[in-house]
């Protein structure tokens, strides 16, 4: 069946019912086919939140489009010598011109998903070509997330590419912290950072570490006040062995006054030791309480780093809240056992209270 034989509306209807991954591969058939896909799917492609270059497993990096229920896998990216490429059995091989660069592909019976294969020396240009093709097809405003382990994985510097890094091992020395600081300074603002450290100090107040949109931090020294004072991002999960209740109270007071954390959407602090009376946080001036007989609204936010599952922040349903003086915005405050959750609403106090049932 030749798609070109049908009227444009029929062609569009057929393409509307195809998966994004199938449209991607179909676009290589011809320039006219790619043009048809781009023109007929403009509205649909606008709903692509982002494309993920996932953390590599066994030297294979999965590329997929995350959707609400299940991700749509597009391809795998594989670094491999030519000899290794040719030795694979039960494999279908083909070549495609990707943004002006000819790249080898294969499909194995094991995965039944096309794999882009290239020599390690060609990885930078090959990945750039694949990335540019995504932007050309799906739109140059679509965000792409590159998930990597620092310092082991290759990290490209490309247009519309956000970095999500996990520091590869738990014990970070002072020297490694300094190297990490240099990496942050030379990088664009990161989308997500995961870090565990035993050092008694975090980064300098001017560090771009605090500008990351999302941070998952495990800290075995009391750096809570430093982190809470300087974090400028949207979401943070902080696990700490040591913490002073006064530091948490200071954070609530600073947020309420509008002095800090202006972009904050969600904060979760987990105490790894149980010798702190977290409930005392609710005694800070300005904490308000909803009547115990009523049901408060449920706070959630889409995660900055969206895994395949658990794509929203942990729900907060709390009778306690505070109001920011500068704009009357509300934040729910929840204390449960060893965990403090703090969720900022878009609503003002009046709008928030109308959602109470």
Automatic annotation (TrEMBL):
Q: Which residues form the F-box domain?
A: 1-48
PANTHER family membership: F-BOX ASSOCIATED DOMAIN-CONTAINING PROTEIN-RELATED, F-BOX-CONTAINING HYPOTHETICAL PROTEIN C.ELEGANS
Q: What is this protein called?
A: Protein CBG17466
Q: Which organism is it from?
A: Caenorhabditis briggsae
């Amino acid at each position: 069946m030749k798609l070109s034989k049908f009227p444009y509306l029929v062609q569009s209807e057929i393409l509307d019912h195809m998966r994004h991954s199938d449209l991607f591969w179909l676009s290589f058939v011809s320039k006219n086919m790619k043009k048809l896909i781009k023109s007929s799917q403009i509205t649909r492609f606008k709903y692509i939140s982002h494309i993920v270059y996932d953390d590599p497993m066994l030297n294979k990096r999965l590329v997929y489009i995350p959707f609400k229920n299940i991700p749509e896998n597009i391809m795998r990216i594989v670094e491999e010598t030519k000899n290794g490429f040719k030795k694979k059995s039960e494999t279908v091989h083909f070549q495609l011109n990707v943004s002006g660069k000819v790249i080898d592909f294969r499909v194995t019976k094991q995965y039944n998903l096309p794999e882009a294969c290239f020599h390690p020396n060609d990885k930078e240009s090959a990945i750039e070509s694949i990335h540019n093709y995504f932007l050309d097809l799906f739109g140059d405003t679509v965000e792409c997330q590159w998930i990597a382990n620092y310092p082991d994985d290759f990290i490209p510097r490309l247009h519309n590419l956000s970095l999500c890094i996990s520091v590869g091992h738990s014990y970070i020395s002072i020297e490694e912290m300094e190297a990490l600081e240099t990496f942050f300074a030379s990088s664009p603002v990161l989308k997500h950072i995961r870090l565990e450290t035993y050092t008694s100090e975090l980064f300098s107040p001017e560090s771009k570490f605090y500008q990351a949109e999302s941070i998952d931090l495990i800290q075995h020294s009391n750096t809570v006040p430093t982190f809470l004072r300087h974090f400028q991002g949207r979401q943070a999960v902080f696990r700490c062995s040591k913490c002073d209740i006064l530091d948490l109270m200071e954070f609530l007071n600073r947020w309420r006054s509008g002095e800090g954390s202006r972009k904050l959407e969600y904060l979760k602090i987990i105490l790894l030791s149980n010798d702190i009376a977290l409930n005392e946080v609710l005694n800070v001036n300005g904490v308000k309480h909803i009547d115990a007989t009523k049901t408060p609204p449920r706070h959630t936010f889409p995660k900055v780093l969206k895994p395949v599952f658990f794509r929203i922040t942990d729900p907060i349903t709390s009778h306690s809240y505070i109001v920011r003086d500068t704009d009357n915005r509300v934040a729910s405050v929840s204390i449960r056992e060893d965990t403090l959750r703090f969720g900022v609403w878009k609503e003002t106090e009046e709008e928030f209270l109308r959602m109470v049932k």
